[in-house]
Amino acid sequence: MSKVYVNPLPVRLWHWANAVLFVLLIVTGVQIRYLDLFSLMSFRTAVVVHNWVAFTLIANFFVWLLFYLFSEKNKAYHPEFNIVKLTKASMAQMQYYGWGMFHGASNPHRIDPYYKFNPLQRTLYQILMLFLLPLQFVTGLLLWDVKRFSTYVDMAGGVRVVDTVHVLIFIFFVFYMFIHPYLATLGHTPTAHIKAMITGYEDVDEGHAAAHG
Amino acid sequence: MITCRTARAGMNWPRLASACAGLLAALALALPGAAAHAADTKDSALSKEDKACLECHAKPGQFETLADGQQLSLVISSKRFAESLHASSGCDACHSDIDAATHAKEPKKIATRRALAVEMMEACRDCHKKAVTQYQDSVHSALVRAGSDKAPLCSDCHNPHATRSLKDASADEPVVCTKCHEPISKAFAQSVHGSSGDEALTCKDCHHTHNVKAAAFADNMRQECLSCHKDAVTSHAQWLPNTERHLEAISCPACHSPGATRRVNLRLYEGAAPQQSTEKVGVPKFVKVANWADATGTGLDARALWSLLQEFNRNGSAMTTTMLRGRLEVQTGEQAHQLAGKARAVKDCDTCHREGATPFQTVTVSMAGPDGRPLRHQARDGVLTSVESIGSVRGFYAIGGTRIKLLDLLLVLVLAGGILVPSAHLTMKLLVKRRRAQAQAANEHPHVAEPSEPRK
Q: Which domains does chain A have, with CATH numbers?
């Protein structure tokens, strides 16, 4: 095993801040939407906290964006335009998670500072970071002050349409918050990927690296 | 056929005859049963001509029998007329159409008191153009045009033979409104605005005198509230998130009449227009469905509302797309006047932002009616929480209170998936732990796992 520096400090800070803010947004969001089921805080407190945390999340998003805009490591987010290649690589990754890893197979993806995501992760994070999260920011911003942004709210189809999109993305992120931590335990040890997001260094199997290099 | 018992045949003074004939019509505008006062023809405020008219018309006990059988008092109190603003104009200012030669000889055909009052409004217009123009733009005038026999005419509020200055007239104004709006007047008298002594408001302070608008339509009344409560937006913003949206989508009494029953009224708006559409008087197909839904008590469902919007948007562009927006309001005009002090106003977010909140259990759909008042149709339970509402009621949403149930179900499924998928995967991993370890060891040390060559 050798160590590869794949998570620079700005990325790690952004990641853990994002995690905390996501949890806060989900908790306050659930309180706002399900006032009849939960009483963690008052509705008004939940709304005010939700708004402030959301603005912090938007600011934090720009930490990520600016880092990758000015870092050559943004290759990790470059899309694969060869659909056949992407499909084959994605199928191989799915086969590993669904079959291979139960039979002792090696992870088909080799971690590299410029290629740290496996094909499934890369596709997911492109959608998540470049589409879903910005869309959640926009819908949240419109709902934050419906009157101020009424022109855009109407252009989007009305306040109920905007809210429905916001809630659908919220539901996706709720699912993500269960799946993402679990997938993080699927390294060569259960804590390998988690430690990597703390120290910045991923363990890489040299033999495996040679095989896939 | 009308006969005048007091007309004196043979009168040979054209001016007097003209005025007297005019009074026949003018008397119709006097309140029935008005007390007759003895003629005071020496009153210096009256001209000689007017005094001549009052020679006859100030005498008590005179009346006309109209075509509908009703009796019309012909008595004018000369004292009150002399004190009125109209004294300076004189009788013939309003009754110039009277033919001196025929006055009291050829009885004028008058169908009803109301018909006469409508006819005499033209005389009002001669001097009071602005007021009459405002009146014609009012809901009262629209009701008259729509055939109402109760909507007020000039003479229902103003006695033309006893009209006083506006300053004095205002004291009587609530009485005038109470003629038709008694329950509202009683409610208002108990309210914070009606029971504050010298500072108490009167009807016209909010509803104006002549251009009275349909209170439940558009934002008519909200603007009146904000005209005095200029800091309302600022003061609400201190505690209310999304303040301007709340003030736009909730009528003031919905929170400031704490005991009122509330409902959501869905209204048509064109594009981004800030005001409710006044053009939409319904499409035949929708009206048919709405009337059927009203008659059967089933209410309109989301699909019917969707059809309505499609009818309106058939030829519209994206910028003029008609959509339904909701407004939280109280259910009766009486409740709208039961305003309490702000300490008692509803400030609890829970009132609306929870599932099953009572304001969302009653939903109506309204459109501008021909008289300017909203025509309401009942909407079906669940119209605000069905998934179809995304299309049909996309201009109204209250977090929590009108949330779409299908999204709740989706969240439950996702939660279940979020727990079950990792659990199943982890279980599989644990079940094959030994086999996996062996396979990994074999991968890492392939020579150990390789079978030994058979001895030769």
A: 2-212 (1.20.950.20)
